[in-house]
């Protein structure tokens, strides 16, 4: 029976012995050598990823130019008309100042309580008139919401708007005001959202594969398996232990630990918090909060980049680049995390076989 067992197991090692020359280091070279059999696949994947990235970037630039034309002109016309029209913000502010001066002149003896009470009434009237004016202007354009203070439809802000649109972040504080802007938004999102999903899938898989190789190259080469025994007829040398027949497991797919992926996400959020601390003067907590809700496609809109006039364009461009690169990194990490979870699930569902029990069964049969 033992002889039959050897005859059953030996042919694999004979084949390995005959083809051993030049193949002993193939597994290590396949992992770390860039010029391997998968070189064509790597180049193809790189070119496809570059093509989809260029397509997304071009589509976003085209959308930015479109919305800058539609919404920018309407905003400029509304601003000129509102400032020059009778009863506009400038007129209301000037009338309020005149009333405050009249109150000061009418009071022969200035008491702080009386002057403050009358001035407060005039300021409240000014606020109500101003809000009513903006509300009427919004209804006239088909929008009953108030415009965002300080938001201008220039190229950086339009680019960021298009990016938040196709990534479904949806910054709630910015929206188109014109009917044509809303129509273009619908069709732009219908095309852009599937395009972004393709971008995340392609770039995420490409980055995950390359990061997996890089991680295992930096982690060191795996131990080479023991050489096969020298077979003479149907006999195996006695000094070659039987358990070594089972010491050559099948090639396992390379994987990255779950903790490494989580650390990458945390470090990228910390990097974004440091960037926006310099550009927007946000606190570390506010910057981390903005980065998290942006990369998580939550997009409350309570923090909007570009609020400081000195660094407005730089901040908006930095936000756009941070979101575009960050979505790819998040997709890569999710790809690695999903693979690790599936691997752990397979280990729990299929526990490893104990070689000792098989050897005991073979010995009992023989």
Automatic annotation (TrEMBL):
Main location (coarse class): membrane
InterPro entries given in the database record: 2pore_dom_K_chnl, K_chnl_dom
Transmembrane segments: 50-70, 155-174, 186-208, 256-276, 288-308, 314-337
GO molecular function list: outward rectifier potassium channel activity; potassium ion leak channel activity
Keywords linked to the UniProt accession: Ion channel, Ion transport, Membrane, Transmembrane, Transmembrane helix, Transport
Keyword Ion transport: yes
Protein name: Potassium channel domain-containing protein
Organism listed in the record: Bemisia tabaci (Sweetpotato whitefly)
Taxonomic lineage of the native organism: Eukaryota, Metazoa, Ecdysozoa, Arthropoda, Hexapoda
